[in-house]
């Protein structure tokens, strides 16, 4: 039975309650509160166990010991799942607070992928109306929450001919293909550990211009909920394999609980940082797929500074030459490969350094496509360095589209300076 109470929804369970789960449901992009339905799978089928409120997105669930998986749904959004491991439930006496992010579905549009559930009426051209031409496309497959590239198999099925073509993405998650007639193409994307993506793609314009697309894959949520000793501190995760630090977010309405949901299941170092930016405490934790909980009480105290001097004999500049690209291209130039071979040698001999590389574009064209192009440029550089023997954990990628120009975009000479990947070396703290 579901009972509404003030700003939450409480669910009574027919058996003993093992876990009291509270929190909010938010739109992943806008962070707007959402009303969503919660379900569990039982031998008799799916059963609804709660709903978050429209105005605040808040919910409270009392879950029995047999629940292994939560299913979260809202019309217009992709279904999320959250695994509930036994260790969390058996060790938890207080409520666990979380943020549940929901991702809006991709709507039908011309020359862009969208979920098959969003297909509406579309008239295919007749034989007499077939327009000849070519539409080259690049599809970037990424993790929907972290934005990381995902190696995947992408299959294209033509509605017009029935022909099926399957391609495997490179390490940067990119697949390229061209279409030569107007069509509705079905997409099937499969990647280990992720929900399969079933989508459609309307090929409508055959003008020879490269089009860049994102296919975002969902996996079961991986959430860390930290019961904090004080809301005055910052709580940060640092992956053992490198990459950017992840700052935990406060749960609205729960001032001493901080969460992260843009996570991969792996080992992290949890850092507690005071108002002066000093690391006060730390702990090594293993984050599993599903719900994870940690209390900061009893963490190991950090003594002394965590910053050490650069390796003797090598004092690199913290900024390296930028790598430049042709208009609308992410192909490496020969001079860029020469620079990257030298950078790779430095990184291989100095594993305690990380290279931060950021893709950029000029301001020509659609900014959404510019952002994708800047990502492709960063991915291509990272892939080249990996082929040169650089460890993936030494590479931190980001992309900014046309948002950070180094020169005015007023003439071609200046725009060429903005079509770049910037490189910066950073020494890792132990």
TrEMBL record:
InterPro entries xrefs: Bact_OuterMem_StrucFunc (IPR050330), OMP_bac (IPR006664), OmpA-like (IPR006665), OmpA-like_sf (IPR036737)
A single GO cellular-component term on record: cell outer membrane
Pfam family, one: OmpA
Name of the gene: yiaD5
Subcellular location: Cell outer membrane
Main location: membrane
Annotated OmpA-like domain residues: 312-429
Lineage: superkingdom: Bacteria
Protein name, as recorded: OmpA-like domain-containing protein
Region (Disordered): 404-430
SUPFAM superfamilies in the record: OmpA-like (SSF103088)
Transmembrane regions: none
């Amino acid at each position: 039975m579901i009972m509404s109470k003030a700003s939450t929804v409480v669910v009574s369970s027919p058996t003993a309650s093992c876990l009291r789960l509270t929190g909010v449901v938010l739109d992943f992009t806008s962070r707007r509160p959402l009303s969503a339905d919660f379900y569990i799978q039982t031998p008799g089928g799916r059963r609804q166990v709660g709903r978050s409120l429209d105005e605040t997105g808040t919910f409270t669930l009392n879950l029995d010991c047999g629940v292994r998986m939560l299913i979260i749904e809202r019309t217009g959004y992709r279904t999320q799942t959250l695994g509930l491991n036994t260790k969390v439930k058996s060790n938890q006496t207080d409520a666990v607070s979380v943020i549940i992010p929901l991702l809006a579905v991709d709507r039908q549009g011309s020359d862009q992928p969208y979920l098959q559930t969003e297909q509406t009426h579309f008239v295919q051209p007749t034989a007499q109306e077939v327009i000849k031409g070519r539409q080259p496309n690049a599809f970037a497959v990424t993790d929907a929450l972290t934005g990381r590239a995902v190696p995947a198999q992408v299959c294209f099925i033509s509605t017009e001919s029935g022909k099926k073509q399957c391609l495997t993405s490179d390490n940067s998650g990119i697949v390229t293909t061209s279409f030569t007639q107007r069509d509705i193409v079905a997409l099937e994307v499969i990647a280990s550990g992720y929900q399969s993506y079933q989508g459609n793609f309307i090929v409508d314009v055959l003008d020879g211009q490269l089009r860049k697309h994102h296919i975002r894959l969902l996996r079961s949520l991986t959430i860390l909920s930290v019961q904090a000793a004080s809301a005055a501190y910052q709580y940060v995760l640092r992956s053992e394999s490198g990459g950017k630090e992840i700052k935990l977010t406060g749960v609205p309405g729960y001032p001493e609980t901080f969460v992260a949901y843009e996570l991969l299941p792996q080992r992290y170092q949890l850092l507690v940082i005071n108002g002066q930016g000093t690391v006060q405490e730390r702990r090594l934790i293993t984050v599993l797929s599903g719900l994870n909980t940690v209390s900061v009480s009893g963490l190991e105290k950090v003594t002394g500074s965590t910053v050490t001097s650069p390796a003797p004999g090598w004092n690199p500049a913290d900024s390296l030459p930028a790598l430049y690209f042709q208009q609308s291209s992410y192909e490496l130039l020969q001079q860029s490969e020469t620079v990257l071979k030298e950078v790779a040698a430095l990184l291989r001999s100095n594993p305690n350094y990380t290279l931060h590389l950021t893709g950029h574009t000029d301001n020509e064209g659609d900014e959404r496509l510019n952002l994708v192009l800047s990502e492709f440029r960063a991915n291509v550089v990272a892939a080249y360095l990996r082929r040169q023997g650089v460890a993936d954990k030494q590479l931190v990628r980001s992309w900014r589209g046309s948002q950070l120009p180094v020169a005015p975009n007023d003439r071609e000479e200046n725009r060429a300076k903005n079509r770049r990947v910037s490189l910066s070396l950073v020494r890792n703290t132990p």
